[in-house]
Amino acid sequence: HAHDVVPFLTMPDNKKFIENLSGTGKCIGVLTSGGDAQGMNAAVRAVVRMGIYVGAKVYFIHEGYQGMVDGGDNIKEASWESVSSMLQVGGTVIGSARCKDFRTHEGRLRAALNLVQRGITNLCVIGGDGSLTGANLFREEWSGLLDELVQSGEISEEASQIHSALHIVGMVGSIDNDFCGTDMTIGTDSALHRIIEVVDAIMTTAQSHQRTFVLEVMGRHCGYLALVSALACGADWVLIPEMPPKDGWEEQMCNKLSENRADKKRLNIIIVAEGAIDQNNKPITTELIKDLVVRCLGFDTRVTILGHVQRGGTPSAFDRILASRMGVEAVLALLEASPGTPACVVSLCGNQAVRLPLMECVQMTQEVQKAMDEKRFEDAVRLRGRSFENNLNTYKLLSHRKIDSELPHSSFNVAVLNVGAPAAGMNAAVRSAVRVGITEGHTMFAVSDGFEGFCKGQIKEIKWGDVGGWTGQGGSLLGTKRTLPAKHIDKIAEQMRIHNINALLVIGGFEAYLGLMELQAARSKHAEFCVPMVMVPATVSNNIPGSDLSIGADTALNAITDTCDRIKQSASGTKRRVFIIETMGGYCGYLATVGALAAGADAAYIYEEPFDIRDLQSNVEHLTEKMKTSIQRGLVLRNENCSVNYTTDFIYQLYSEEGKGVFDCRKNVLGHMQQGGSPSPFDRNFGTKISAKAMQWISKKLKECYREGHVFANTEDSACLLGMRRRALVFQPVIQLKDETDFVHRIPKEQWWLRLRPLMKILAKYKTSYDVSDSGQLEHIIRLRTKDISAI
């Protein structure tokens, strides 16, 4: 049985709103500690702005715990403007230091004095497990420290009464993603961006010279970065501390490399975590691997150690949103804390903000290390949590080709096609489906140009080697079209019959969803469509019912964020300038809203939230006020279809007229750059995992539906959409999603990200209503003994 870590959530019946939570009279200190990570600034900014918004005072504690111990100018009150322009900066602008003093009792006593003098009894700590453990110890000692300060006459008895309880909320900022209880730590996604950029760049030079590259990535005790980057770039071999290779691995690895060369693959990539070890806990270094490859195979081999590059650069869109959501959640947790509340960590589980007891997470994290020291490696992988375990299983599935004699032979034919507009990550999904399909014993067919190519018979078998190197390619290599199947249904049925297709995997956007419905409706006329069919959502618009996220949306968000960063930079040079930026998305406001949150925009106009001339006017007035402060630039996003009459030009002209003498305007339509580009690590990984899962479902369904020599599937649950819902990947019959869909505007009727809108407004200094019922309950890490936890 797999132990797994699934926190449970209890939903409160009564709604809670931010308006009812007040921070008046409270003081919050925010610090970043330990190694820096991209996105820490976004978290600091969110804590400061949310704190000020609810009426609390917020203090920066510079240079981590060192600043808390030294006091003086290191602890400064923060203002709204003081966190402006931080969002797009990597590292931490308030500084971080590894602090020896805080480890001593004397140091913590001085820190307590510095906090009490300023009335700070709420701490928000952004750092790794060491920093958070330190904070917890400080909290446990707090009342004792205050007693000592009263005895030495440094604070009054009254002061110690008023400040009797210290509340602590942690956020995990660590590029290693080595903290148990959280799916992603702040900085991990950005570090993956850096690694993938380097690997993509190295691949072109390696290909030119037929070289082997050995790359060392960070992760002293945790192989997450190595594992996910290996998944995301299709590396030939990966070495991580949690799963040392079996004895005799050297020979196995060399065989694998030479097989790949024989397969006309001109390069090999080996990724090594800096903490990689063998079964006897001996380090496996990059030099050792290089010497091995040169000795056994004579391949031209180079070593690249990525080092601190991984900590650098601007935070990715994902990290900015993660950190902003966590920062707001941290302030809510501090407002709701009572003296009895244990120190907690705010984190993300799937797509959901959760609070977990800090020490439970720390103990679990330490258990992983203990398991590794005691060579209980399988336990270590399990303790890392479901997301790590799934990454590992997917990697194993995709990287090692079995010899034909080892494969089960299924005699089933499965076709894969792309439908709709291109989205980055489609190719990773196709690669994953093809390889998993072959591993399961099926014959895989690729259909070119969607349903249009299908009816013309553009269908050919696709083999393991044909999809090598596909993960990092943008767009759709199979070709994709928006054509729907209904008008070509007879021809498509004929092609299904000619090629004897027993199952379909459709990877695409809203047209893929409509197409699947049409194929299902055609089952009564054409028995050829009575086969298992599944759809995986891939569209930049993220407008598919039944899934919180779709492949390609993360890459598009990064494209929007990058452009907005550049535009903001140009605007801060010219001063007093407002940019109106038009984003894609059809009628779905996901890109505009989440892009606005990641870019620190002042407003985002979307179709789902109707607006009128009064709203436009209040936005202009808001910007006019903003121009009086030190932040003399504005950014406004507009979804392409948010309103028939309030067009981008109209809004631009209105702002230009109303802003005369105060600010001038520029407009920018982002257009198709949002669909292009190399897929982000998130989209590669998401595409790979979701598609592998879809393929396994197809195999299961084929076995269930196989009778007397042929496949017959006619039930509702044999035509499904696989989507991510909150915390898990779920198969949903498309017919049941009908009621959740607004077909006219091609969007789901209910969209989870609308809950992020108030967040964007609060961080842009608008007063708004914010439903916080979703957050709140402190959960526990529960180890379930169950086989059927099928989450990502």
From TrEMBL:
It comes from the Eukaryota. Residues 413-792 are annotated as: C-terminal regulatory PFK domain 2. CDD domains: Eukaryotic_PFK (cd00764). One of its GO terms (cellular component) is 6-phosphofructokinase complex. ATP binds at residues 35, 98-99, 128-131. Substrate binds at residues 174-176, 211, 218-220, 274, 302, 308-311. It catalyses: beta-D-fructose 6-phosphate + ATP = beta-D-fructose 1,6-bisphosphate + ADP + H(+). The active site is at 176 (proton acceptor). Its main location: cytoplasm. Allosterically activated by ADP, AMP, or fructose 2,6-bisphosphate, and allosterically inhibited by ATP or citrate. InterPro entries: 6-Pfructokinase_euk (IPR009161), ATP_PFK (IPR022953), PFK_vert-type (IPR041914), Phosphofructokinase_CS (IPR015912), Phosphofructokinase_dom (IPR000023), PKF_sf (IPR035966). Coiled coil: none annotated. It is an enzyme of class 2 (transferase). Homo- and heterotetramers. This is ATP-dependent 6-phosphofructokinase.
